[in-house]
Amino acid sequence: MTSRAPDPAEFVADRGGVVRVVRLTDHGIGRRAIDGAVRANRVIRVRRGWVATPDADPVRVAAAREGVVVTCVSQAARLGLWVHDVPTAFHVGADPKSACRPSERTHVHWFAPILPRDPDALEDPIENVLTAVADCEPFERALATWESALNRGLVTLEGLSRLPWKPAARRILAEATPFADAGLETYLRPRLGWLRLPIRIQTWIAGHRVDALIGDRLVLQIDGRHHVGGQRSEDIRHDAELRLMGYHVIRISYPQMMFEWPMVQDLIMRAVAQGLHRAR
Length: 280
Description:
This is DUF559 domain-containing protein. By secondary structure, the protein is of the alpha+beta class.
């Protein structure tokens, strides 16, 4: 007794909504069944050799149509990793030998991936994403994205250390730690390392985490871009409690961290000069 071939639309939906036609035929779905699903608008032809469900992720559909994979900061953002800003152009990856023709709205990374790409893949694996980020973004921004991937458990330092990275990525790997919870905190170590003071990131004091503790008593808090309402009220209360415990608190905003760093550094230097980082 022969088994019945899967329904084309259900098969495509179960595999992420965008699939190479060869995968359908490999599972016994014939051309007639595929053509029937297309005529019924249950699947659409993306380009030669690819089909998708009508409600498929438009990013994956676009990648299939252009013969690329989503990578770099665009894929990092899709994975929920920290990126400096949402890119205006979509970042995609393509093999230098490929014949793809991405649209003008995309930023193409023509590189041989550090991990081989599955022919069915429409999104780069995380190691390839980090490869592109290292070559595309300034050091601090790239480090923040790498540390976000480490913090989320998508990669490990041990696993990354075994890969044949280029110089830019090797520099990032040498500095990366899995303990930074937000990209902004990543910036503090290279920016303040010259002070040669202990800098502890995301440490717990009085029942809450502080973004950075410099020395024994200098606390630096970084407000996110949407720091309002109940969160702000709770942070004000916690700041007051820290001061009563003998800590000095410097609270800065996201724009100050990103665009007014000399002012922030001056505040920290003055606090250190006054000994506010020392236990009394």
